[in-house]
User: What shape does this take?
Amino acid sequence: TRLPAVNQESSTAAMMLRSLLLLLGVAYMVAGDFDPSAAREKVFEYRVRSQQLHIEDLEKQIGELEEEYEKLSDIPDKDTIDELKARVSNLEPTDCHGKHTHQCHGDPGHCVSDLLVCDGHDDCPNGGDEDDFTCDTEVIHPGRSYSGRATWESCKPFGPHNVIVTIVGSKPTEFFGAFTMVRAVVTLEVDDDHHAKSFSAKGYFSFGNRLLALVPEEGTSQFAVSCKFNHGDKDTADCKVVERVSLHVCARFRATTK
Ligand SMILES: [Ca+2]
Assistant: This one.
């Protein structure tokens, strides 16, 4: 009469063992489960960190540029350089709703950080952040000229007048594809006799937000200019004349190519 009891006990023990093994198996599967979104996040984090290094490299390049300028001219250009540095360091990667985001070309549902546009790696699922359309440099081709009639809101009591921005040089940054360094001449035709004030400016073009930011060479002007090109439009931009130091908006103009 004891044998069936033993058999029952051993069969209960076997069931418990099977349950335990099953539980262990599930736990192992959960622990060892590959999570693609976490992995993508890791890769993104790595890329962002690497872009931070690129920013440091760009700052170093700007530093070298500063030294170069000091050799060429007696006038130091620290304000301009500091402003460029500040603009670059303010760029931080964010999600799709953030300020510095770029909508993937051909895929409106996806966004990437401005810092990842035209950097040589596909970040959009369809590679739209690296295609020829997005990374086209025609708008900053030397010789391109943009002009428009500026309306002053503050800073100076100027009447409406023409502003002309002519690109004189552009150079991709070696390790930071999202930006191209640009040189330009900016002309403000400040009075009715078309008495013009021209100044040399330098800055960058950001592929991610299609923004051309130009600051004057030290001592040449108190104004800087920024122009935002619509995606896909190489010929028209919404531009602002801003006070170089405060970045206060003084005037606006709609610029078109001549
Ligand atoms: Ca990219």
Summary: The radius of gyration is 29 Å. The chain is about 30% helix and 30% strand. Residues 1-31 form one domain.
